[in-house]
Amino acid sequence: MIKLEHIFKWYNIGGTRSFVIKDINLEIEQGDFISIMGPSGSGKSTLLNIIGLLDEPSEGHYYFMGEDVLALKPKKRITLFQSHIGYVFQSYHLIDELTVYENIETPLIYKNLSGKERKAIVGDMLDRFGIVGKKDLFPAQLSGGQQQIVGIARALAASPKLLLADEPTGNLNSKQGEEIMALFKQLNEEGMTIIQVTHSEKNAEYGKRVINLLDGQVK
C-alpha cells in the first residue's frame, strides 16, 4: 500500500542542512497497524505528515497504492488524500466557524454522496461517539477531549482506507483513550490500515508492529 524509499527531509539553516528525517525506507501493507515511537524531535510527526501528503520530502520516492505521489500534480494529490486518507491531528484542526455536525460532514462533501447519505453517516458518527447533544456547538464551546473526539469522528466519517493518527489519545482521559484504541483495533481487524504516532507504550501495543525513530532515522 505504501512504499517509502530513501526519504529525507531537511531545512537549510544558515547554509547548512538541518535534517528532520534521514534515509527512511519503509513498506506498509494494506491492513497493517503501525505504531511510530520515539522521543520528541525524532521526526515522528514529520514522517506522518509526509505519508499523509501534508508535507513533501526534500528527497526520495513515495508510492501510495501504486501511485508515484511526488510525481502527481497538486490537485491529483489532494484528490488522493480526500479519497483514501483520514487524519487525526494532535491539535484537532477543527474548523472554528463550523458546528460539530458540519465539521464531521466536511470530508463527505468531497464524496459523491447525497445529502440524505451524508446525514445518515454523520448521525452514525455522532451516535457512535456519544456526542449527539454537542452537534450544534462550535469547537470553542468544547473541551480539549471533546474536540479530539470530534476530530476522530471526522477522520472516520469517510471510511478511509488509511487512518493516520498523531497522538490520538493525548487529550483524552484514560477511559476515553482505551475506548478509542479499542475502536482502532476493531477498524483494523475490519481491514483499515492504521499508522499512529504515540508516546504511549500501552497504545503502541495495539499495533501489529512498532517503528522506533531516533534523530530522524529508523532504529
UniProtKB/TrEMBL annotation:
The keyword ATP-binding applies. GO terms for molecular function: ATP binding. Residues 2-219 form the ABC transporter domain. Pfam families: ABC_tran. SUPFAM superfamilies: P-loop containing nucleoside triphosphate hydrolases. Keywords: ATP-binding, Nucleotide-binding, Transport. SMART domains: AAA. The keyword Cell membrane does not apply. InterPro entries: AAA+_ATPase, ABC_transporter-like_ATP-bd, ABC_transpr_LolD-like, MacB-like_ATP-bd, P-loop_NTPase. Transmembrane segments: none annotated. This is ABC transporter ATP-binding protein. It comes from Sphingobacterium arenae.
